[in-house]
Design goal:
By secondary structure, this protein is α/β, with parallel strands linked by helices. The chain has a single domain (2-262), classed as NAD(P)-binding Rossmann-like Domain (Rossmann fold, 3-Layer(aba) Sandwich). 53% of the residues lie in helices and 14% in strands. The chain has twelve helices and seven strands. Strands 3-2-1-4-5-6-7 form a seven-stranded parallel β-sheet, with helices on both faces. Strand 2 (34-39), helix 3 (42-55) and strand 3 form a beta-alpha-beta unit. Helix 2 (19-30) packs across helix 9 (216-228), helix 4 runs parallel beside helix 5 and helix 10 (238-249) crosses helix 11.
Length: 265
């Protein structure tokens, strides 16, 4: 079933050069999809494209793009549409975070984070939605975060950006009802990826939450399952998903009794 579902589908993946973006590209290629890789690093994209073609007998293409440069987003997506005539799935995966107390965070650094995590995602989505509406089908997947539901100390700006992603995702899902376009939010906990080279240069946070770290391949697999099943939203791992539910139902109690668990950065 899944093989037929993805066979020949044009799938655009932002942030595709490493982490779960890279894993999703490989797994989708294995299922017969045509991944279009988007990121800033040409060398990493070229390496991944060659790997997909040679090792997985798949097809792939790539475009160099910094999604925070909004005027470039439309240009790149227009080039993709011109070449392939369609985009079946968009996975908004590009994003990064820095962990600092709010008072220690400059407005400039917060703007940079929002430009990638929020405005870049918005620009990519606006670029594909008109074409998906003409096709009368499509799927947009936004990689948000558990942090978009449960904020923690030293992640105010990052959590705010992911709250924005979830708000946008829920709104456009309702706006696009009846168009044939599905919209999914993926909310993973911490993942073992290069994300933490920027977010946690000291390595202290990763050390503190080692047992909760998700493997990129497993997250990518769950994203693909969510597309197959047209899920509205996925929280992972299960333990953090349960904690998120408890926090949303009992926020005061959760902050009082689980404060130390939330303060690991």
């Amino acid at each position: 079933m899944s093989q037929r579902l993805f066979e020949g589908k044009v799938v655009v993946i932002t942030g595709a050069s490493s982490g779960i973006g890279r894993e999703m590209a490989i797994q989708l290629a294995q299922k017969g999809a045509y991944p279009i890789l988007i990121a800033r690093s040409q060398s990493k994209l070229e390496t991944l494209k060659k790997e997909i073609i040679s090792q997985y007998q798949g097809e792939a293409d790539y475009y160099i793009l910094d999604v925070s440069i909004l005027e470039e987003v439309e240009k790149v997506f227009n080039m993709i549409i011109k070449k392939y005539q369609r985009i079946d799935i968009l996975i908004n995966n590009a994003g990064y975070g820095t962990f600092d107390y709010f008072l220690d965070s400059s407005i400039e650094s917060i703007k940079k984070m929002f430009n990638v995590n929020v405005f870049g995602l918005m620009a990519c989505s606006q670029s594909v939605i008109p074409y998906m509406m003409k096709q009368k089908e499509g799927h947009i997947v936004n990689i948000a975060s558990i942090a978009g539901k449960v904020a923690t100390p030293k992640s105010a700006a990052y959590a705010a950006s992911k709250h924005a992603v979830l708000g946008l995702t829920n709104a456009i899902r309702m706006e696009l009802k009846g168009t044939g376009i599905n919209v999914t939010a993926i909310n993973p906990g911490p993942i073992r990826t290069p994300f933490f080279r920027t977010a946690d240069p000291s390595g202290e946070y990763v050390k503190n939450i080692e047992r909760f770290l998700l493997e990129p391949a497993k997250v990518a697999h769950q994203v693909i399952l969510a597309i197959e099943k047209r899920k509205r939203e996925v929280d992972m791992p299960r333990l953090l998903a349960l904690g998120t539910w408890l926090y949303q139902c009992f926020p005061g109690i959760s902050e009082k009794f689980a404060g130390k668990l939330l303060d690991k950065k």
